[in-house]
Amino acid sequence: MAPNRISLHDKSFEINIPEKEILAAIRQVAAGINADYKDKKPLFLAILNGAFMFASDLMKETNLDCEISFLRVSSYQDMHSTGQVSEVIGLKEDIKGRHIVILEDIVDTGQTVYALLQNLIAREPASIEIAALLLKPDCVQHPLQVKYIGLTIPNDFVVGYGLDYNGLGRNLRNIYKVL
Ligand code: 5GP
Ligand code: MG
Ligand code: MG
Asked: Gene3D superfamilies from the entry (predicted)?
């Protein structure tokens, strides 16, 4: 049994979304993707570090011919966005003419994914969509359409299942919210 309360650095967190619910949400995302990408050989681009667990569990639920690759885009420090998005790092694939699905852990202001989208669209993919495990809808400040959403959550700071608080918490199997 996972603990209901944990401490990371100077903060306490309580369980918010148990692993079972996370995995059920991922199965539902995968069902949508499986239906939409039949015969399209999509290339999934997972955003490191946060999306690594989401990407892993989502891939196990796909029944498609597909590829996956990983890239980095932004830094997010403490509990607030730094407001700066760095370059796209680590994308080796030529995405021209490919069907791209971006895998993101959480969309908050939308800035990270928005900047990435602009960068990738310039490389002329055949199509590009976003799959996010978590969405904070009150916070999206950019004209973004997130086609595949695992769970919609309130504006709480969360950790676990890939998401960190200053480096800690990524290894937790459940998602916790700050107290
Ligand atoms: P955005 O650019 O949409 O504001 O923020 C996206 C990135 O900020 C996410 O990929 C994630 O790394 C980080 N982020 C946003 N909200 C949270 C949160 O509640 N917890 C954690 N750990 N990271 C978050
Ligand atoms: Mg992220
Ligand atoms: Mg982080």
From this structure: 3.40.50.2020
